[in-house]
Amino acid sequence: MKKSAIFIVCIFIISTLFFAQEALKSTEEEYYDFLSLTGVVARPTLGYRTLSDSVWELDEDEEHVWSGNNLGTTFILWQPDSQSDNWFTRGIFQGLKARIYGPEWFNSYNTAAPYGQNDGALWQGVGYNTSLTTGLRLEGYGFELTFKPQLSWMQNKAFETNPDIYPSPYSYTFKSGTVYQPIDLVQRYGDKSLWNYDWGDSEIRWTWHALTFGFGNQSPWLGPAILNPMLGSNNAATYTKFDAGLRKLNVTIPYLNWDLGNIEGRIWVGKLKNSDYFDQFATRNQDRMLTAMSANYEPSFIPGLTIGLNRIFLTYWRTENLKYILRLFTASHSNALSSSGNDEDQKCSLFASWEFPQAGFRVFGEYGFDDFTSSEYANPFHTGIYTVGFKQDIPLPNNLKSELSFELNNFEMSQDFQLQWSYLGFYSHGFVNQGLTNKGQIIGAGTGAFGNSQFLQYKIIYEKGYTSIKLHRFCPNNNSIYSQAVSTSAGNSDFYLKWYANFETYLSAGCESNYFITKDFSVIGSITYIFLVNPVYKHFEWKHCCNTTLLLKYNL
């Protein structure tokens, strides 16, 4: 007992480092991202980020609004008296340092409909939902060991589900036109309360300068989106993956000292799992292989601009499918019922983000397409989806800061499908039946995945926290209605009356506030009113819903 107390005291008295690795979309990462708008801190990534990559370096003498609050501390536990200085060890931290995450206790309650996203393995159904996250990170000599699991419980109370779109109250397919198309997107996780354990942001990694290799469960956030990234987010449970590549690296031509800018690249292979409710297609009820790449560039000759490409192949889990990891595109498919296992689904996105620190402004856009075929030559918007948005710093008097954010996502199917066949949408596929999901949730956009979304937020930041107002409108699945019109006529009065203006639409307005009770302990609470129009596609009906959340967080 005495030895343990001495060890804890030593941790506090040893020098600390003024940089931190932050979890995706955490309070700390969002705050550092705000500081980057005006150039107070440099963004550590270009288009691929996980907890391990999100390393924000802030000058200890830099004054900022939350200077008096503890945003997390990295402690030096041990360093040798002498440092090796050869070509291999130069630039690598020699010693042992640690970071403790949390604990964080998240709670939410939904009155009438599921609501919530970007919350990992937690699924915020109707009733009470809670998750507990804490963890430890150790680093030394290029090695990084992170253990940060998530334990959650969901009350999962009953609510009205959609028999017209889903043939099951728990769902493992969508109805597209007259055909049920499979996707492992769960409508409700059974009819009982449930516990869930997820490895969260746990991984082991080795990094030498910018070269990095990692194995673990950190889900990457891909691209510049604020709320709904196309191909990678923390919306679903984490998946096990191995990755290799380059962290953000400045490239200079030797001898000439020409600065070409910054590059960043990663390739990875991951295993996606089915939910317990994907059982109709027993021949395809198996794990999937995700092979992906991300390549990003920040040119020195156009300050503030970042461009990037993200590409994903989905196949079933077979060794021969590793061949897809370095492929950029392919236009071929094998038969969906073939025994080769080479049936593949490819998805790609291109993005650009442009930052103007003098004006505190960032604008971004992303374009994605599902499968590359000859159709793209005739119509580049075939299967195309897009996102646009911005962030703006708005100075206020009395040392207050504020930020205005906006994001628009259009993930609806291109209308040339009216000349072909029913198309469920960007995240689905006829050959890889589960689609781009893991354990029943999409690993990309959490809202508007087959429809559209518009999100607006205004946040005021002050010494003891922040207060924000959010407006959000989204239609989760407009494609289910558009697909009804394939091979039909609007002249049919029954058809017209059933589907016209029948889009299920969520209109939400809410406020959120974070308050540092002490410099280490913060409380974040929110309340959101949701007006649900045409619930389960019932024409001219509506529901009044409420979502409340409470997060208690302690930083050591």
Please, could you describe this protein's structure?
The longest helix has 12 residues. The chain is 7% helix and 43% strand. The protein is globular, with a radius of gyration of 24 Å. It is built from five helices and 30 strands. 42% of the residues are buried. Strand 22 and strand 23 form a beta hairpin. The N terminus is likely disordered. It is mostly beta strands and 556 residues long. The strands form five sheets. The chain has an 18-stranded antiparallel β-barrel. Strands 2-4 form a two-stranded antiparallel ribbon.
Helix share of residues? under 10%
Structural class: mainly beta
Instruction: Assess the beta-strand content as a share of residues.
Output: 35-45%
Spans of at least 5 consecutive residues whose pLDDT stays below 50 are: 1-17, 332-341
The mean pLDDT is 88
The total of helices stands at 5
Biggest pleated-sheet summary = 18 strands, antiparallel, barrel
Number of strands: 30
Distance between the termini: 20 Å
Principal-axis shape? globular
Work out the radius of gyration. 24 Å
What's the topology here?
Elements: H1 2-13, E1 16-17, E2 19-21, H2 27-37, E3 48-49, E4 55-57, E5 74-78, E6 96-110, E7 127-140, E8 143-147, E9 150-154, E10 173-176, E11 179-182, E12 194-198, E13 203-208, E14 211-216, E15 221-222, E16 240-253, E17 258-272, E18 288-299, E19 305-316, E20 345-356, E21 361-370, H3 375-378, E22 384-393, E23 401-410, E24 437-438, E25 441-442, E26 452-462, E27 465-475, H4 479-482, H5 493-499, E28 505-516, E29 521-533, E30 542-554
Antiparallel strand pairs: 1-5, 2-4, 3-15, 5-6, 6-7, 6-30, 7-8, 7-9, 8-13, 9-12, 10-11, 13-14, 14-16, 16-17, 17-18, 18-19, 19-20, 20-21, 21-22, 22-23, 23-26, 24-25, 26-27, 27-28, 28-29, 29-30
